[in-house]
Design a protein that fits this description.
heterodimer; A: about 290 residues; mainly alpha; MetI-like fold; 12 helices; about 70% helix; elongated; B: about 350 residues; alpha/beta; Rossmann fold; eight-stranded mixed β-sheet; four-stranded antiparallel β-sheet; globular
């Protein structure tokens, strides 16, 4: 016994089961989430590799091929109001639409988590100041807010990304703050304070690990909202400008064809729908996989 | 069993065995109550109202009292998890946080705390090895050495390191988790360990094991305990001195046998008579005390216990009793007018006056 205590301890067995290991194992048991992940992967791959995969040029118009129906030879998903290949444009459109979905949420996740954790850990007046300031943003519906900010900044891709980020930051802050406030009261934070560790170390080791999970899941749920809002901005002419392919914009330019060729006109909407549903189901799957304390 | 090899800086005794390890003077803390926004007067809960005591080296001071009497707040004030409004502390001769005294950081390292909720006091995302190693690592001990120390501590508290170091808190039982919490508290070689209801949530057999472990550790490492509990049996078993608290104040303090045998304060007597007896012939039919503790926002004038006290008299509402040493028991202090012959209480003992 004393030999063991004098330092001749056998080396620690390698830590095989980290937390994310357990989450991954749990996640593999969720068929719906796995299917959603596969669908998303396919859509992302199609968008990323569009220049190599797409059958045609997304900008090449032809008056002869205007509004070809779905299933026309050579044009699998038909052609749009300017005779451009729909399949090609949907693949290219995914690039901007997914960017609209991912970039604002990622930015809001980084900014919002930092602010929320800081406010939640500081507590008291600082917390109140931050949260009440952000409550101002809650006075507006998120669509209205996005339109207002994008309108004020002027149309354009980067401006709509900024507008969407600003819409999501308060929401992420609120989630991060509330989880942090809960975690901060727990005894293990007090025990860590007893050890004399400084606040940053405690946040890094004890707070972030327990806060990032829920915030991450929440942010995953925002991906679909962001994509839809981004498409909405483009639809209103505040985001991407024609002739760039983007699902929301395509929906707008094709809306005149809704009576003559409804199937083609609905395709961009269908893509938005499928992608956002897949994001949501993925978020649900992550949520239950990350809850390993069952 | 030489544990000091695992610790770079063994706790130094400065004042010798006669000097108390911790002296607390007039500790006070009130918490604001959120009232009506238009109310003029701000209300406060006087959670701890002028608590003073000393803990001798290598002894165990048990703090008892019903829930809400300020036991846990006192512990948190001592640990400086909550900043006291006023009051001073002297740790082994050094004024804590005073000019020329002991720095708060050094004081904090000299005492550690074990909490009641064994689950909430462990980070669910860290393995227990990482949890124990966190403190030393935060103070710059290299990772390998810190985890080495964590493993040594785990084996000392009776958990095989190979089996437990890489487990997560939810994979452990309550007793095992509390052992982990004790191991974590020991990682700094503290001199004072505050045990805040540390065994209250455990079932009796596990409780006994953990208590025995605590006794062993105390003897082995020369620890001093501040043992907070509402369980009078456990306090009797573990403590050398007992301090009884009521509504944020000390009502009685003294050696454990003196308190359990010759309690002088009516509240302590009521508290002790509420303990169920193992002897059926000594069963009590009547509840020893009626009513709930009064509202700590507006405590009664004079003696705080007077509206539940069976022998309250006019003097009790006029004046708060001071904590005075009884004549018969050395080191036995009571805050009751009946103990003070000059108080004017009709039941103040005559022999005290003599």
């Amino acid at each position: 016994m004393s030999a063991i205590l004098d330092g001749a301890l056998p080396e620690a067995a390698p830590l095989t089961r980290s937390y994310w290991h357990l989450v991954a194992r749990q996640f593999r048991r969720e068929p719906v989430a796995l299917a959603s992940a596969a669908v998303l992967l396919a859509i992302v791959a199609a968008a990323v590799f569009a220049p190599w995969l797409a059958p045609a040029d997304p900008y090449k118009a032809s008056m002869l091929r205007r509004l070809l129906p779905v299933g026309s030879p050579g044009y699998l998903l038909g052609a749009d109001e300017l005779g451009r290949d729909m399949l090609t444009r949907l693949m290219y459109g995914g690039r901007l639409s997914l960017l609209m979905g991912v970039v604002p949420v990622l930015a809001a996740f980084l900014i919002g988590t930092t602010a929320g954790v800081a406010a939640g850990y500081a507590g008291g007046r600082i917390n109140m100041l931050v949260m009440r300031t952000l409550d101002v943003f809650y006075a507006f519906p998120s669509v209205l807010l996005a339109v207002a900010i994008a309108g004020a900044l002027g149309p354009g891709m980067s401006n709509s990304l900024i507008a969407l980020t600003l819409v999501f930051v308060p929401q992420v802050v609120r989630v991060a703050e509330s989880v942090t406030t809960q975690v901060r009261k727990l005894d293990y934070i007090e025990a860590a304070r007893m050890s004399g560790a400084d606040a940053l170390t405690i946040i890094r080791v004890h707070v972030l690990g327990n806060v990032l999970g829920p915030v991450f899941v929440y942010a995953t749920g925002l991906l679909s909202v962001s994509m839809i809002l981004g498409s909405g901005l483009s639809f209103l002419g505040l985001g991407v400008k024609p002739p760039e392919p983007e699902w929301g914009l395509m929906l707008n330019t094709l809306r005149a064809a809704i009576y003559s060729n409804p199937l083609v006109a609905a395709l961009p909407g269908a893509m938005i729908f499928i992608t956002s549903i897949a994001f949501n189901l993925l978020a649900d799957g992550l949520r239950s996989a990350m809850d390993i304390r069952k | 069993m030489n544990m000091n090899t695992a610790s770079p800086e063994p706790a130094a005794d400065r004042g010798g065995p006669a000097q108390p390890l911790l002296t607390v003077r007039d500790l006070k803390k009130r918490f604001p109550v959120r009232g009506h926004p238009f109310e003029r007067e701000k209300k406060f809960v006087h959670a701890v109202d002028g608590v003073s005591f000393t803990v001798a080296k290598g002894r165990t001071l048990g703090i008892v009292g019903e829930s809400g009497c300020g036991k846990s707040t006192t512990a948190r004030l001592i640990a400086r998890l909550v900043e006291p409004d006023s009051g001073s502390m002297v740790f082994d001769g050094d004024g804590v946080g005073e000019f020329g005294g002991m720095a708060l950081k050094a004081f904090r390292r000299s005492l550690q705390m074990v909490f009641q909720d064994s689950f909430a006091s462990l980070n669910p995302r860290l393995t227990i090895g990482e949890t124990i190693a966190f403190g030393p690592r935060a103070h710059g001990v290299p990772a390998a050495q810190a985890s080495q120390r964590a493993r040594a501590l785990l084996s000392r508290v009776g958990l095989a390191p190979d089996q437990f170091a890489s487990r997560y808190p939810h994979e452990l039982s309550g007793g095992q988790r509390q052992r982990v919490n004790i191991a974590r508290a020991l990682a700094f070689d503290p001199r004072l360990l505050i045990l805040d209801e540390a065994v209250a949530a455990l079932d009796k057999s596990v409780q006994a094991q953990v208590l025995n472990l605590l006794q062993e550790l105390k003897a082995e490492r020369g620890l001093t305990y501040l043992f907070i509990s509402h369980d009078l049996h456990v306090v009797h078993y573990l403590s050398d001195e007992v301090m009884v608290m009521y509504l944020g104040q000390v009502v009685e303090t003294g050696p454990v046998e003196r308190i359990y045998g010759h309690a002088a304060h009516p509240y302590t007597r009521a508290l002790l008579s509420a303990v169920p007896s193992m002897d059926p012939s000594r069963r009590t039919e009547r509840s020893p005390l009626a009513g709930d503790p009064p509202n700590p926002i507006n405590p009664p004038s004079g003696c705080r216990f007077r509206d539940r006290c069976p022998s309250a008299q006019a003097v009790c509402s006029a004046q708060a009793p001071a904590l005075l040493e009884t004549v018969r028991g050395r080191g036995h202090w009571v805050a009751c007018h009946m103990n003070d012959p000059l108080s004017g209480h009709g039941m103040a003992r005559a022999e005290v006056a003599a």
